[in-house]
Amino acid sequence: MTVVNLARLPGRGQIPVPPGLSHFPKQGQVYVSPALAELLHELPAAQLADRFPKVSSYGTIGAAGLASPDELVAVIGRAPGDVAVSEAAGEQNYYDDGLTKRAWVSGFSGTKASVFTGIDQGTVLLGAVLLVLPVVVLASAAGRLGAARREQRLAALRLAGATPRQILAMTAVEAAGVGAAGAMAGALAYTALLPALAEVPYGVGAWYTGQLWVGLPWLAAVVLAITALITVSAVTTLRQVATSPLGVAQQADPRRTRVIRLLLFVAVLGYIWAATGDGGQLKPRQLVALLALFYGAFWLFGPWVVDRLGRIVGRCAKRPATLLAARRLSDDPRAVWRTVSGLVLAGFVAGFFSVSTLDFDGPSHADQVGVVTANAADARHTAAQARTLLRQAGVTATVTVTDEDDYDSLLGGADGVIAHVSGGQTRIDTGVTALTRLGSGRYPFTQEYVSASDDIVVARVATVSTATLVLSFLVAAASAGLTSAANVLDRRRMYGLLRLAGTPLHVLDGARIRETVIPLVVLAGGTTAMGAFGAMQLNKAAGTTINTSGALQLVICLAVGTLAMLAAITGSRPLLRKVTEGPAQTAD
After folding, report:
1. How large is the average pLDDT for residues 148-173?
2. If you average pLDDT over residues 34-50, what whole number do you get?
3. What gap in Å lies between CA 470 and CA 561, rounded to an integer?
4. In 3-state terms, the chain is what percent helix, strand and coil (to 5)?
5. Measuring CA to CA, which residue among 572, 567, 133 is closest to residue 347?
6. What is the DSSP string of 475-499?
7. pLDDT at residue 546 greater than cutoff 50
């Protein structure tokens, strides 16, 4: 809960109005957020309402003064000489991080984030960067849907006399139309779902719908970007059609990869190792840039690994399905990589967020309520008042006085009073309310207040971790299912010829599964390990330890992700059966 005490100083001219209020609060006026007003109505006055001045009715803070409809905020009008706005009341302990300091206010247009919201943007940015490439993979897969059949048709047109410009224009128009329709459907769905999305809590609570609306210019830019991505993805598949249509028509061009991909990947890894291994702390934006660089390098490196895996498996294959899978791996490693890349990169996300679960080992004084005083003499006087107030409130507590040498307490070495409260959280809340009336202007606080800055970091990372893991695996499964279905359609001629040669359907299906599982095991294992390494670097920069329970979460994530991937691929089995029915006609 945030409590803001404001006093209008004499001799001041025009007074700025706090955001969300109709006017500057007069002495004795109390404005509260809607969420706090609901709590004031629900809870007994001894637990919450008695912390504020007695008023006949509370004013309401509007949305302009709140970060979330769930935020708990109170704005209290005070007299200039009130102890609550005195300089002494702002002398709290080091846990405050400046939150209780008193200051002259010249306006309310500051942009500095509070301790409760300062990390929000950085953690969301980190999750967004980790999700961008899987989404790009999905869009690229959509653009390449039916690419092989399109190449065959356009190669025939090219041999019949069509110019490269004409076939590129036809493909671009077709892909742009489909991409624009899909992007517009997504934009309309986003607009329609805004009220539901606003109910998803993050940070201090849920959202105002307007906070999630990006505006028409940004929405149009995203639609255009998605359309352009799908169009470019479709057009880039036509390089061989434009330069060698006869080779495409005869399917005589194995799409091998070059060793330059390995060299670039090693160079990027070396740079990342040097940037994170010098002992210095990386800023969030630097860490995000390194993650993006790693993603790009692995996108180049993946097809090279798939190509080499195909050659190795082909030499060791003892079953027909394995031999067919090896041939597909080496013949078109880029197509295979597009099928598994979503889950491979999701493995990096799983490794990163599972290990980056932070664990702050700090003191815990769950049953204590503390009040800081100016000095030891003041603490002894305050202790007597505290005992009286707690007794009047019906709270059973033991009140002790701390000093500068007493670090094993809630106050951590500051002069003050500690109340050891019995009876659970309800009695602690009642004790905090009672001690608010001590008269020193210093608010009492509990362990939650002391641990707030660390707990917020853990909570934000955990929230973004869960959301990113779920979304990345959903995108990966959708990408794999889409690509697998597209591959069946693109290879219908090859499957038809194999059926004519007597190959059983279960052998063809087994080959499809193997060509996915083999690179998946090798590449997903590597990216998961690299994600764990990146998380350890983040933890080192944050000065925290690794929560070992993240290992179990990692195993579960990989197991669920693999099952989702196999389910998506298996879902195209009926399509394989259909395209191989009547093999003579299909082969033609």
Report:
1. 74
2. 93
3. 9
4. 65, 5, 30
5. 133
6. HHHHHHHHHHHHHHHHTHHHHHHHH
7. yes
Residue whose token pair is 């609570």: 205
- Residue 586: pLDDT over 70: no
Contacts of residue 397, defined as CB under 8 A and 6 or more positions apart, other chains included, come to 369, 390, 419, 420, 421, 422, 431
The mean of the pLDDT values for the chain is 80
Which DSSP letter does residue 86 get? S
- The DSSP line for 187-223 is HHHHHHHHHHHTTS-BTTB---HHHH---HHHHHHHH
Q: Which amino acid is at 188?
A: L
Q: φ, ψ for residue 203 (rounded to 5)?
A: 70, -125
**Separation of alpha carbons 487 and 145, rounded Å:** 8
Long-range residue pairs from 160-165, CB within 8 A, at least 24 positions apart, any chain: 164/241, 164/242, 164/243
Contact 353, 544 (CB under 8 A): no
pLDDT confidence bin for 92, thresholds 50/70/90: low
Please state which of the ranges 60-69, 72-81, 499-508 shows the lowest mean pLDDT.
Answer: 499-508
Q: What is the DSSP letter of 445?
A: B
Distances (CA, A) of 508 to 321, 456, 499, 579: 7, 52, 9, 12
Q: Give the whole-number percent of the chain exceeding pLDDT 90.
A: 18
458-467 residue pLDDT tens: 788 778 877 8
- For residue 556, how many C-alpha atoms fall within 13 Å in the half-sphere facing its CB? 10
What totals of helices (H) and strands (E) does the chain contain, helices first? 21, 9
Burial of 74 (0-12, 13-18, 19+ CB in 10 A): buried
Q: Cα separation of 85 and 5, whole Å?
A: 7
Check: CB of residue 397 under 8 Å from CB of residue 420.
yes
- Whether the pLDDT of residue 176 is over 80: the answer is yes
114-139 CB burial, b ≥16 within 10 A, e <16: eebeebbebbbebbebbbebbbbbbb
Choose from 23-37, 107-121, 341-355, 473-487 the range with maximum mean pLDDT: 23-37
Question: In this structure, what token pair is assigned to residue 257?
Answer: 């990869």
